[in-house]
Amino acid sequence: MTDAGPSSSSGAVGGSGLRSDRDPRLRPWPPSLRERLVALRSRRRGVTCNICGWSGPSFRGVLHSESATCPRCGAIARDRFLYHCWTERVPYRPGARLLETSPRLGQAYRRRMTELVEYLASDYDERAHRADLHLDLQRMDLPDEHLDVILTPHVLEHVPDTDRALAEMYRVLKPGGCALIAVPVPQARTAPPPAPEYHGDRTLVYWRFGWDLTDRLEDHGFETTILVLDDFLDRAREGRTWESGGGDVDPNDLVTHAGPYLDRMVAVASVEQARRLALAPSFYFIVWEARKPAR
Question: Which CATH class is domain 24-291?
Answer without folding.
Answer: alpha beta
